[in-house]
Structures are given as structure tokens and as C-alpha cells.
Amino acid sequence: MADASSHFPATRWTLLQTLREGTEADVKTALEALCKAYWSPLYIVARQSGLSAHDAEDSVQGFFESVLEHEALLKADQSLGKLRSFLLIAYERYRIKVWRSKTALKRGAGVEPVSFSSVDGAEERFLQIASEGADIETLYNREWARSVLERSLAALRLDYVSQGQEERFGLFIVYLTQAVNDETLAQAAVKNGMSYAAFRQSVFRLRRSYRSRIEDELALTLGTRDAHVIRQEMMELFKAF
Amino acid sequence: MANPHHNFIAGNERDILAQMIADEEMQEAGVDGFIGPYRLVECLGEGGFGFVWRAEQTEPVRREVALKVLKRGMDTAQVLARFSLEQQALASMEHPHIAALLDAGVTHDGRPFFAMELVRGSALTTYCQDKSLPWEKRVALFRDVCGGVQHAHQKGMIHRDLKPSNILVAEVDGKPAPKIIDFGIAKAMTGMPMQEAYFTRAGHVMGTPLYMSPEQLSGSKDIDIRSDVYALGVLFYEMLTGSLPYQSAVRQTTSVTEMLRILNDERPVRPSVRVTETVKMPAVREAMQQNALAHVTGIPVDLDWIILKALESERDRRYDSVASLMADVEHFLRDEPVLARPPSLSYLAGRWIKRNRLVFAAACVCLCAICGGAAVALWQAHAARLAQRVAETESARAQQAVGFLTAMLDRVATEISNGRNPEALKLALENSQQTIDGLGHDPALQIELYKRVGWLYEAMGERKLALPLIKAHMEALGKIHGPDSQIAWEAELPFLIKTIDHGARGSAPPLVEALLKRVAAKGLGRSSFAFIVKRQLVRVWTKLDQPAKAAQVAREALREMEGVDLPGTTAFNLKASCVDALRAAKDYEAAERVAVEALEFCRTVPELHGRNDWLEDKLIEVMRDRGDHQKAMDALAARVERLKAHSAEDPRPLVTALLALGVASSNAGKLDAAIRHAGEASRIASSHAPSAEALKTTGSLQTLRDAQVDALCDLVGYESRAKKHQEAIAHAREAYRIADEQGNVTRVSESLQALANAQSRAGDLDGAFETYLLSSERSGQRGANYLRWHEDLQSMCQIRLQQGRAEEALKLAVELWHKERVSKEAREDKGHMSDVAQLALRCHQALQKKQPATPVPPEVVEWESAMKRR
Predict the structure, then answer these.
(1) Mutating which of A48, A238, A239 best tests the B interface, going by the most B Cβ atoms within 10 A?
(2) Known catalytic residue: B173?
(3) Which end of chain A has fewer CB atoms surrounding its CB within 10 Å, N or C?
């Protein structure tokens, strides 16, 4: 698990290792990554369990604080591949047993609240999916998958933007959702004044890059680049919808 | 860092992931890669478990195929089994309208794949639209599709996912050739069930639910070929109308529960109507002018019924197989009558009541009009007027329903003309009161409905159901016009009459008295209405077995009516009821006087002709009760003469009169005359009675056979008493023969009773015993009422006692007693129980007398206490 390669930035160090051995700043960064990945899935769970929007926010926030305080995450390494299930179960336990009594106390002592910029729109999404009629675990997994896809897409866009290819990104993004065949690609190439080969290559480049950004995201929360583990997580992603 | 694409993911997750999987597949095979001998060209689509590729085969022949490959990671035992099932399904089928299986194999990483015939065509509905196919050709195309599905069914496969994109139409030699391509979630009718088909991942319907039958949508595991029938119905509907049966409603919902509710509660608009509606839409009209929708006009109604039958939400109501659906489509194509019929009224009513209470109520008015005997044509005109009125007075909602109303009434007319109305009507009217109760905003309609539906129940013999409606009618009128308006009174009267005749009779007297007081308070105490009400008071006391009260009210009424000019019928009816009351009070003199008066009155009033005999019967009963048998005989003899003058068409009144005359003669002690009259009645009945053969076909002739048995039994009684035993026994046997032939349990039992009586009077006690035994066996067989076989047993016991065979008698008595004790009806009849106990004790005593050493049966204690309780 200590196979973090040199080109792998510090923030992408294996998560648990960071939690165990990292500096305070590292821990904070790692926790933030984890929170980014699981904040909105857990928020959906909280809302679906009947908490109000405000209480759901408090509850999830409190959960992540508690996780850090009690080093609960450290116990998760026994079943690393099941980090997602572990978080769901741990959260449910927290919600029922801990948070209810904790809300009675004045909060804010101890760990400074982490700010989560990526949680925007969680409530909106909850409202969208509340009517799907699926069970909590399904919703949680879907929200996780969606947030992985979203963060990966944001990362991908950043790649394009940093290379000055924002426009290109906008042009090809639609092919992430569409089946491509020779005819459609040829037509689109003509329309955009590009050669068929160049067009086709750009489409597939975008699709491939997107896939590797997703793998990066998965690696981040898994704390490993192990191809087999990531592959497994990828299958989980495929199954979420 | 503004991200213009931050909303790109939500809603597209599934598509994005599918593309990633496709890419993975392609990469795996390499851009020029092969799966088996097939070079992947293009991904055609993604199913639940696999991808379909357009692929190229070079060896041994050069052709393009559709290659279906199981997705990686999907190779669980269950999915593998299903995949192989689809392959087997395809392999077993060989039909021009099913894409053929060409080859099968396994990829290098162990995933199964198979190659199918590649169909280059467009989806079924798209093809119909693109080609602007006239509806006749659409029907033929649909028939072909049915052929393919039927073939699959014959091979034991249910498709379960029939939808336009799974049926591609290519043109072969310029003719459309549909092919069913996807058996991905097909299910073998026997063998392994494929359970996880639709609701993978917690409640998410896979694929489009729009073509799924309600049972599939609800996740039922019990799916059969009728689910395919349903899907074909949806397809056919869409092919003909260009829209889905529940399109607007279903499109607006994402919830399976809601969709199921729509499917179960609503019926789709008939295709021909939908088409007409569509044509009315401006955009469509425009399109039609460009001739693009020329096909949409004039879809024959027969097709409506075919489609709606396939689309029934209850599968028992659908075609039982695609074969029969196809047969009906073929009937239609050959201009033969189709089997599908408009849904029956009772069924429709149930669904429809849920949808539109007001229009349901309006329909009831129309139904009442039919039952009132109006000709159907007249009734339809009425329905049309009513529909018009509803449309004018109600909102747009009602207007929408008018079309449906008219259509439904048309169907009711069919039901009626088929003679099936009573049951259907009853069903349609169930819960109608509640429905009408909800119409408070339209009191006029509400009142009309209470009255008509109540009346309709009456006509149907459902008196218990009628009463609350009659009451509601009365109260509704009282609310509007005031409870003491003439109109409210007139509504109250039928309520009181029904209560007296069929309802809680005991509650009626105070109600009637109160009404009388209210009428009097308005100064109308001597109006004909007051006397009509008074008559009800006479009747109710008589019926309540309160003769003193009844006679008192009767005398009052008779006094009060003197000098009042009442309508003939009112006066006559009141007097008739007074006769009953006075007779019950044993005031025979007054009763006879009133009856004679009334009879004389009857002769002077033309509208009362025909009511003569009714009152005369009352008079004769009075005569009989006061022991004036000669007078009764005279009156009946006069009637017999009258009837003989015109008995040709229907002999029954004459037979009845002769039997009555026989009874009167017998009462007068004139047995010879009684025998003569009963014998004549028997001869007349026999000469008119139908043969046993004729009896099997008609019900109305039965009564003459009954009359025959009645006459013979009466005759037997008279002959026995006149000591003409041989004749009596012969006639009794004859009666039994006829009753037995007719199969009427009651008459069989009566005739055996008559025979046993005759035998025992003739001194043939053993013969009588045998007859009672036969009778008890026959009653036992038919489960006849308890009194019959208990009586038989009782008679047998008495005979043995009479014969001095006390031991046998006691045995029978004990048997009888135990049977009585387990019979609920017998236990409730205390008098009967003590009679039985008395007989048993007599047997016991007789035996003790004869053989004092006999042990006392344990029942004796019970018998003695039953006797005391008397």
C-alpha cells in the first residue's frame, strides 16, 4: 500500500497512511479529500433517514469530526475495499447513537470545522432523487458514483483549461454520453471543419482521459494505485446505475 | 473557477458509464480487434448485461452480423445462465420474423458471445411513421409480428421485453419484413425462472416500462405469455395512433406505483378516438395537410376492441394467447367478425365509478330509463339529452366524460339486448348510494338518482338495497321543499310502505302516526292522501299481529271516510285492508259487511274491474273463519262457473278455484263434492300439463305440473277421509310419480306425505312406514329443511308406537331427539322440541309397561325437562 509513486502528489498519498503517519496539515488535507468524496452521499442518507436539511448538514459534519477524533477510520484498514460500506455503517451508527445526544451540547470545541466546498447542490440532488423509491444504500452508492463522475469531470476540465483547450472540452464533452460510430463522427467532423481522423482521435482522447481521471479519484479515496483494487472499484461504479 | 459543465453529470450517469464500458470493450478487442472470428465494427447498443456490436465475418462467408457479448464483470452464475438461455432460445427458433442465431462462442477472457443475423432496419413504429403506412398495412405488419412472438411461445419462450426498438423492420423485395431481435430478458416457460429481470438495483425499472404489463411492472414473478399479449397491445396501439395508450399520464410520472395505479384504474382512450383527437390538434392538422398523416383517419372500431382486449390490466381478461390475438387480427383482415367485444358493463362500471362519480350517477339515470321499459332507441335519445345537460351544467371534466358516457351506454344497450342486464345492472349499481350522496352540489340530479336507483332495486327484487335509497330520496326532497310539502309527503309514503312490507316494520307505526298528524295539522286530515296514509296504519298493525289496534284504526277510518268523496282505488284499498284488520280481530260480521260493500262498489267502478277476485278471496276467508262453509262454497262455485266460461288460454285460475272449492266442500263436510272438485282440477291440470320433455326447456309451464300434484294430493286427502283408500293410494302414487319426474323436492315430499297418510288411514301401517322412510331418505339427500325429515322420523316413530313395537319406536325417538339437538332451527323451536320429547317419553313409557326390566335411557332426563319448559 505504500506504493505511492513520486509523480503522485502528496494529497494523493494513501489515505490511511496519511491519517496514521501524516503531519497535521496532511491529515487535514486527507480528511478533506475523504469528506469531499463522501459528504454528499452521507448527506443524502441523512436526509433520506428523515433529518431536515439543516440537521442533516450538522449530522454529517459532526460525523466527520467524530471520525477524526476517535480515529475510527483507522479501524477500517482491515477491510479497505469496503471503505464505502464502512462509512455508511459508521455514519448510521453515529447518527442514531451519538449525534442525537451530541446536539444537546454546545458544539465547536475541539476540532475546527472543515469547510466543504464540494457539497453545494447536495440538497438539490436529494430533492431530485428522493422520488426514485430506491433503498438508502442504493441512493448512497449512486450519489457516491455521481460525485466521483462529477469531480473527475471537473479535474478533466481543469486539464483542458490549463492547456488552453477549454473550447475543445466543450465541443467533445457530449461524446461522453453518446455511442459513437463512423457515420456520426464523420458528420460531426465535417460540421466542425475537422478531419475525420482528428475528430475521432479527439473524441477518444477525451474519453480515455476522463477514464483516467476517474481512476485517480478512486485511487485517492482507496489510498492505493493497485490496478486490481481500482478495477474492482470501477466495477462498483459501473453497477451503481 | 466557474465551471459551465457542472450540471453535466446529473441525469447522464448511466449513459456515461455505458460509454466507458463500451470503450473498455473496444479497447480490449483492439480497434481492429476480433472477438472470435468477428471483427468489431461499431457498438450498436447496450443491454442490461451485454453489448451488441455490428461485426464483420470474413470466414467462411463474408457477412455482417450482430454480435452480442456479455459485459465484463457480469459473469455471475445467474447472468451466465440467462445469457446462455437467450442463446438457446434463439437457437431453438426458426421463423422469418425472428432474427436467426448464426454462431456462438467464448471470448479469450471467457465471456460468452453469440452472433445473430444483422437486421438493417428501423424500429417498428418509426418505420410505420416514416413510410406513412396506411393502417391496413400496419395491421398486416402487426400480424407478422404476432406470428414471430407466437412462434417463440410455441418454443416455450416468453419475450417479456417487446417494444419498437426490439422489432426492426427491413424491406425484403420491397415488402416490410419485421424481425424480433432481442430475447435478452426472455424467460423459458418451463425450467429455470429468471427472477431479477426488471427490478435490478432496488426498484429501478430496466429498460422502458411503457410496454410492460401491470403484472411485470408490479414485479410479479408469475409472468406468462399474456404479458407478451399486453406488450403487443401497446405496440399495436402505438402503431395505429402514433402514441402510447397512457402516454400523457405515464410520461408525467417516474414512480412505478403511480404508473401501476394509472394502468389499473384507467382505460386507454380507444385507438379510433385517440386518432380523431389527434387529428383535431392544430399541429397534426397541419401535418395532415402535407399528407403525412393520411393514415390516421378511419380506424375501424373492431380494431379498438382487439387492442383494448389485449390491453386489459387483468390478464384473465386479455387474449389467452398471442395465437388468439393473431387469429382475431386475421378475422379482421378477412372482414370476419372478431371475437373481441366491448368490455362488459359490469366490468367497465367498476373501473369507471372510480373515475367519475358524476357521470356514473348520470348513467344510472339512463339505466333506469331502460329498465323502466323505454325502447332502447328512446332511451338513447334520452341519454344523449342527458349527456348534453351534464355537459352544459358541469365543468370541462364532465364534457370529457360525455364521450365515454355515450360509448358506455352504447355497450349497455348491447348487454341489455343480450338479455344480460340484471346482473350487470346490479353490479353497476352497487355502492351507488354513496356515489349519489356525493352529488350534494347538484340536488336536482341527486334526488332524481335516489328515486330512480331505488326504484330500480325494487324492480330487481333487491328490496333491502332499495330502502335506504328511498329514504335518502325522501330526506333530500324534504331538505329542499320542506318536510311538510306535498312533494315530500309523497316521497315519504313509499318509504313507509316499503318499511312496512320489507323493512323494520316495528318502527313504522309512530312514523305513520306522525305523518298523519302533520297532514292533519295542515288541515288536510280528510284528503285522499290522509286516507292513503291511514290505510298504512291499518296494514302495519295487522302485520304486526296487533288485531285490536288494527281493528280500532280500521273502524275509525271507515267512519271518517263516510261522506268523503275519495278516488275509487283509494276507497277500495282502504276497505280491503280494513277487512283484513277486522277479520284478524275476529269481528267477522263487520269484516263481511265491509267486504260485501266493497265488492258491490267494485262492480260500479270501471277502474276496479279485475280486483274483484282479490277481495272475494278475503270475503271467502272471512266466511270460512266464521264457519260459514256453505256460503264459501257458493261463492267459489260461482267463481268456477265464471272461469269455466273463459278458461281456454290459461287453466290455472280455474284449477286453483276448483281446489279452493274442494277445500270449502271438505270443510262443509261434503267429501263427495270435494272429491269431485279436486278430481276435476286434477283432470284439467293433466290435460294442459306439459310433457316431461317440455319441462326441460321452459320454466313457466312448471306451475301446471305443480297444480297437477296439488290437485292429486288434495284429492287423496278427501278420498282417504271418504274411506276410498284404494283410489287415495293410487292417486297418491300418481302424484309422487309426477313430482318425481319433475324433480321438485317440495312436491316429492308432499306427495309422499299424502301417500303415507293414505296408507296409514287404510290401515297399511308397514306401507306407511316404508313411505316415510323413503321420504326421509329423499329429503336427506336433497338437504331439505329440517322439519321435513324430522317429521318423517316422527311419523315413523308414531307408527311403531301405534303398532305396539315400543322398542323400535324408542330407538327412533332417541335418534330423532339427537338429530333435533344438533339442529339449530329445531333447538330454537321450543314447541317442536317439547313435542318430540313428549313422543319420546310416550315410547319410553310404553316400553317400560311392556318390558319393565328395560334400562331407562339417559335421555329421559332431558325429555322431562323439555316437557317442563313448555
Answers:
(1) A238
(2) no
(3) N
